[in-house]
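Team,

Forwarding the record for the chain on the shared tracking sheet. I've put the sequence and predicted structure together so nobody has to dig through attachments.
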Amino acid sequence: MYYLPSYSPGLNRIEILWKHAKYLWRCFASVNGTDLLREIQSLMKAFGSEFTINFA
């Protein structure tokens, strides 16, 4: 058995995915609501092909 802290974002896969989406794949800094929705939709459509994460 291994000790895991109560909150460990480095081990939580959804946190790793969100970090990649926010800081590496897209720039959400200067978009309005419609553009933001388009960016998120394109990110979700391309996830697994254009955007991948290697958890190894």
